[in-house]
């Protein structure tokens, strides 16, 4: 695997909160040297790279094993949501789809686009988990049970509750129900 020294140096420098000028000053090299290396217009010798890295400070070993952080993704298009559960039937014949926004494993928040087809049900065995969850009904209707309370929810209605309480989602109606929900910490 070939390593892009210029890109890596720029990421290491930025992660350390240094400008090109400040890194050059600390390393005792010219600002142009740092710029040329980062643009891959100058391939530094091992000795030169070691000198530059002393300005961070970082060893050559740390530099070459440095994991480049993935660029933080902010926007997720409809086709980028990934299905984490579908065709769940519980005790019914209706389809349930949960499409997740991003990677909930990297965050303390899980956001879902949920679709409950007519007849769908999360099951007679009530759900319970150590989270807080909430959501907004986008379209359709569904029945929410939390503890011994049942609620019929429609477009624009929302919910928020401690998920340690037994709960169940069910669509006994003739049209699909779409919900956008959030859960923290992630459950699914």
Automatic annotation (TrEMBL):
Protein name, per record: Transcriptional regulator with XRE-family HTH domain
InterPro entries in the cross-refs: Cro/C1-type_HTH, Cupin_2, Lambda_DNA-bd_dom_sf, RmlC-like_jellyroll, RmlC_Cupin_sf, TransReg_Diox_bact_type
UniProt cross-references to Pfam families, sorted A to Z: Cupin_2 (PF07883), HTH_3 (PF01381)
Residue ranges occupied by any HTH cro/C1-type domain in the UniProt entry: 9-63
Domain of life of the organism encoding this protein: Bacteria
Organism: Novispirillum itersonii
GO MF, one example: DNA binding
Recorded GO CC terms: cytosol
PROSITE patterns, per database record: HTH_CROC1
The entry's keywords: DNA-binding
